[in-house]
Design brief:
heterodimer, A: alpha+beta, Heat Shock Protein 90, 10-stranded mixed β-sheet, 6-stranded mixed β-sheet, 19 helices, 20 strands, globular, B: alpha/beta, Rossmann fold, 8-stranded mixed β-sheet, 8 strands, 42% helix
């Protein structure tokens, strides 16, 4: 066989003795796939997510990402997975988009289990399928290194890859030796180097020469530019940097930071402690603000990227998998019914029992078998969804609710080519008075326990007016079988027309209806209980008006408001931590010219007090107070009251 | 204006098409000479090994405990503690493109005794450089059992840590505190007219400031630097000698010992410049060693709590520079120990009897410094006189280079041909 006829893998192996590199072009048989190497993702986090997924599919137990933040001069992603043999590398480079995963050839190459092409050799459900994940790095750079090694190999393979055309190249279309057209997407130099560590395995992707726009995005240049420009204009309202950020370099290529990082952890903290403090800081910000905690204003892009990756990857939960929550954690449990007109029923769980045990749920906390840990810049990521210790609010109903469901749909009697085969999934809807951060409001679909999309706040297009209720809801659907074919190329969105997606839409909307009914029922019962317990009749027409107005809005649970005789915010804080909306009487009620102590004045203040509480209930019920500080809320109510009192005269 | 460059394209389109890096270099360089292996084995690694065996409570990794364990939690909080189970030996190094120093350290410490985590400074590590060598070497070394997988080599100059606001300084804190700091400097610490050394000294000062606050156990500092008295910047050299001069003035014994080594007028007030210039070359080399050590000791003595800094047996050799001129290289070792002691109840109210820990005084350390600088051995002489040792070192070095991907036969031939660097 002549050199030109030798397989690329053979040529790569020859470099062990010749000590010369092999040159080749990256190619694909499909023009549309050539576009992948131009970049198809919207955010840098997507590229990192894809590399993490590749590591997962390679049965890695650990991924280490080093970003050089906030300079981002180069990024390394290394795993201890099985590594790429020259044969796999050849396939990857010469057939972009033709992943051997999930095929018999994949079994032959050792990237899929011998008995199941949808599983990794280690038994994990494969996330990737098209062989394009690696080329997601086009989001970051047009130049990267692959340094890879398989266990038992006395050599490691190094590939230096540039994407796009090289100097002097003008044509992307090529004609292969067999006469078929191919599409050039880049160029590679590959060689083998002696390895001392024969038994080690793993792959490192080193992203070099990061694209200026990607670097700027990761470094939050838009935020810093805004801060700087407003600093220059003394008349403009000052914009402060995000409360949490990784700092900023004076110049992109420099080595000095002009803004030092503001992070909730220190260098002395362990990787677990860092993540714990990061999540803790996000959670704690809910205590200083009545509104939603918004990662976009709290964190810079880098920290948001970490959070997004933590949500997307198949990782252990930060606190606990929701299926492992216990009755003694202070939740109420319900089981969702798999019927169009179904109703959620109480799940009889006691003490330390869990929904997992009760319903024999399978979705793993992290992965089945071997652990999978992801470290980024010294922080260990976990899935940061909070179920315990969430803030209390003005809602009368304070007990978090967990609705759990599972279903298998075989589409019996339907042609498989039309139905897409069986669909099997487990899911939960978690309600709490306040979801932190607000980016967790919505539903996320996980295929193979990974997700490319973030929480969908529309709940897959739920049309019913439940805005207030759905803002208090986090949901995940763990798809064990099916849906895979509905995933679009970027794995960040779905083909809405796919039967599996359509089925999940119907199931979720039914689940939401069941949840809403149960929630209303609980709210109404609590309201009645409260009225009865306090022996109260409806005070005035004001209370009725508020209750009626909020009911029309879909809010059964009238917020609890207290008018307190305290003078400081600190004193009020104590009461607020118990979940009540506390208004300071002296701050909220407008002063009058009348002499204190007169009956007229007492009546006036009593009426004003009732109106202030009613106003607060209405505004909270509509969610209009969420973005205001306590002080601003009091000021707003006082201003409205003053107008109302003028009218009364 | 139509057609002109508006500047909007800045930061959108890269300036150049991507180009491949060069694969590894096969050329042999000065640090591939056999004598460097002597320095590694007999100075750096020997002292490190002693420190490790002195301080480690448990020296073996547990089964299945890989570098992942390091990342898993113990690093930051405990690297100021005595090295123990799960606590890696924390190293700050300038390791060169092949990371030979780290490879050799791991080899000499012996598995399963040690678990190393390192931070390296190497200006050529970055993406704008032509070689893949550092990238591949770092991947290879961090894949070895006993090396933390998040160890890294930065594309930064060591001197960048001179400023606390730099990215390099952030990394210093991220990976520190350190048990071993090995500054095998490309540039020289010796003040010459052609090089501004202040940035190096500021960097070392900043490093010590950090270590003194963050580290609590003994640690080692290795400094390798060339000394060129013929090109000395006398003003800067005199400044470096200031702590020595001060000690000379205050302590009779120290002064006597110096008088035995140097002309009387070297340390007279007001005559610094003239007298330093008059020193013989060998005297200047020795004085630099003493001055550098005394400068470090003064920093240790001036800190709170105090640090005792003791020089360890060190070495020197000669390198050839332009026109084959011989220039001395000093490879110096210092041990740092924090002065901390349990409180003594002098009133006798407590029944607990505590003996205050005795640390060597600065004067003792200073006298030892003079002695050890005077006793520095010449590695070239040692190797010339001990054929077996040289042969053993050559074999070790050839093994090390082969493990790093070099052609062993080519290396042996290069050594046989006189270790000539082209």
């Amino acid at each position: 066989m002549s050199s030109s006829q030798q397989s690329l893998a053979d040529q790569i192996r020859q470099s062990e003795t010749t000590r010369r590199w092999v040159e080749t072009t990256l190619s694909t048989d499909e023009r549309v796939l050539a576009r992948i190497t131009d970049g198809i993702y919207r955010q840098p986090a997507s590229a990192l997510r894809e590399l993490i997924s590749n590591a997962y599919d390679a049965d890695a137990t650990e991924v280490i990402i080093l970003t050089d933040a906030p300079r981002f001069s180069e990024i390394a992603v290394r795993d201890n997975g099985r590594g790429l043999s020259p044969e796999i590398l050849e396939h990857l480079i010469l057939h972009i988009g033709g992943s051997p995963k999930r095929s018999d050839y994949g079994k032959f190459l050792g990237v899929a289990a011998p008995d199941n092409s949808t599983k990794s050799p280690g038994g994990r459900t494969l996330i990737g399928k098209l062989g394009i994940g690696l080329f997601s790095v086009a989001q970051f750079t047009h130049h990267f290194l692959i340094i890879t090694k398989t266990a038992g190999d006395k050599y490691r393979t190094v590939a230096d890859i540039t994407l796009g055309l090289m100097e002097g190249q003008t044509q992307r279309t090529t004609v292969n030796e067999d006469g078929r057209s191919g599409f050039t997407t880049g160029h590679a130099r590959i060689w083998r180097e002696h390895a001392e560590d024969v038994e080690s395995q793993g792959t490192e992707i080193k992203l070099l020469d990061l694209l200026p726009r990607t670097r700027a995005e990761l470094a939050s240049e838009d935020i810093w530019t805004r801060v700087a420009s407003e600093t220059d204009d003394p008349q403009a309202k000052a914009t402060t940097p995000p409360r949490l950020h990784i700092g900023r370099m004076t110049t992109p290529q420099g080595d000095v930071l002009d803004h030092q990082p503001q992070l909730p952890w220190t260098e002395a903290d362990s990787p677990d402690e860092r993540f714990c403090k990061f999540v803790g800081a996000v959670r704690a910000s809910a205590d200083t603000h009545t509104g939603s905690v918004d990662l976009e204003t709290l964190c810079d892009h880098y920290l948001q990227t970490l959070w997004t990756l933590a949500l997307a990857a198949p990782l252990e939960y930060f606190q606990v998998h929701p299926f492992d929550l216990r009755k003694e954690d202070g939740l109420s449990f319900f089981e969702l019914e798999n019927a169009p007109r179904g109703q959620a029923t109480n799940l009889p769980i006691s003490g330390s029992e869990t929904a997992r045990k009760s319903l024999k749920l399978q979705a793993p906390d992290g992965t089945f078998g071997q652990p999978f840990k992801v470290f980024i810049d010294g922080m260990r990521l976990r899935r940061p969804i909070l179920y315990l210790g969430l803030p209390r609010t003005a809602n009368a109903l304070q007990t978090p609710l967990l609705f759990v469901g599972r279903h298998q749909q075989h589409f019996e009697g339907k042609p498989r080519v039309l139905s897409g085969g069986s669909l099997s999934f487990e899911a939960y809807l978690f309600w709490a008075p306040k979801i932190v951060p607000k980016q967790h409001q919505g539903v996320v679909l996980r295929v193979g326990n990974a997700s490319g999309s973030l929480f969908d706040r529309t709940f897959m297009g739920y049309q019913i007016q439940e805005q207030q209720r759905t803002r208090q809801l986090t949901a995940e659907i763990f798809v064990h079988e099916g849906l895979d074919d509905a995933l679009n190329l970027d794995r960040e969105s779905f083909n809405y027309a796919h039967p599996h997606y359509q089925y999940l839409v119907k199931w979720l909307h039914s689940a939401l209806r069941q949840f809403a009914n149960k929630h209303k029922e609980l709210g109404a019962a609590l309201h009645a209980e409260r009225v009865a317990a306090h022996g109260l009749e409806v005070r005035t027409g004001i209370d009725d008006s508020v209750a009626k107005a909020l009911k029309e809005r879909g809010v059964e649970d009238v917020p609890k408001v207290v008018l307190a005789d305290v003078s400081t915010l600190d004193e009020a804080g104590g009461l607020r931590s118990e979940g009540a909306v506390v208004l300071r009487r002296d701050v909220v009620l407008p002063p009058s010219g009348a002499r204190r102590g007169t009956r007229l004045e007492r009546d006036r203040r009593h009426t004003a007090g009732s109106k202030a509480m009613a106003l607060a209930q209405l505004l909270h019920g509509w969610g209009l107070m969420d973005t205001l500080t306590y002080g601003e809320q009091e000021k707003l109510i006082r201003d409205i009251l003053e107008i109302m009192m003028v009218e009364a005269k | 204006m139509i057609g002109s460059d508006s500047g909007f394209a800045d930061d959108i389109v890269p300036d150049e098409l991507p180009v491949h890096l060069e694969p590894r270099r096969e050329k042999f360089l000065p640090w591939h000479r056999v004598r460097k292996e002597f320095i590694r084995q007999h100075l750096w690694n020997a002292l490190t090994k002693r420190r490790v065996s002195d301080s480690w409570v448990i020296t073996r990794e547990t089964p299945n405990e890989t570098a992942a364990h390091t990342i898993g939690g113990e690093v930051g909080a405990s690297s100021s503690a005595p090295v123990g189970l799960g606590t890696p030996l924390s190293c700050l190094v300038i390791p060169g493109d092949d990371l030979l120093d780290i490879r050799a350290l791991r080899r000499d410490l012996g598995l399963p005794a040690c678990h190393i985590r390192y931070l390296g400074f190497n200006e050529s590590a970055g993406s704008d450089h032509v070689s893949t060598q550092v990238h591949v070497a770092n991947n290879a070394v961090t894949s070895l059992v006993g090396v933390a997988r998040d160890s890294r080599v930065l594309h930064d100059r060591f001197q960048s840590i001179a400023k606390p606001g730099t990215q390099a300084y952030r990394y210093l804190k991220e990976y520190g505190p350190y048990h071993v700091v090995n500054l095998d400097l490309c540039g020289s610490l010796f003040p010459t007219e052609s090089a501004d050394t202040q940035e190096y000294y500021t960097a070392i000062h900043n490093l010590l400031s950090y270590q003194f606050l963050a580290q609590t156990t003994k640690w080692l500092l290795f400094i390798t630097t060339q000394v060129e008295p013929s090109r000395a910047d006398i003003g800067q050299f005199a400044a470096l000698c200031q702590p020595t001069r001060e000690n000379y003035r205050r302590h009779g014994t120290f002064a006597e010992r110096l008088k035995a080594e140097f002309p009387d007028d070297v340390f007279h007030e007001g005559t610094a410049t003239a007298s330093l210039a008059a020193l013989a070359e060998e005297q200047s080399v020795s004085l630099f060693g003493i001055a550098l050590g005394k400068w470090l000791m003064a920093l240790g003595h001036g800190s709170e709590p105090k640090w005792t800094i003791t020089m360890r047996h060190s070495y020197r050799y000669t390198i050839r520079v332009d026109n084959d001129r011989g220039v001395a290289m000093l490879s110096l070792a210092f041990e740092f120990e924090r002065n901390a002691s349990a409180p003594v109840d002098s009133a006798g109210v407590s029944s607990l009897r505590v003996s205050p820990k005795k640390y060597k005084s600065e004067a003792e350390c200073a006298l030892k410094l003079i002695e050890l600088v005077g006793q520095m051995e010449d590695v070239d002489h040692i190797l010339a006189s001990d054929v077996q040792l040289r042969s053993d070192l050559l074999k070790s070095k050839a093994d090390l280079l082969q493990a790093s991907g070099y052609d062993r036969d080519k290396y042996l031939k290069w050594v046989d041909d006189g270790e000539i660097v082209t």
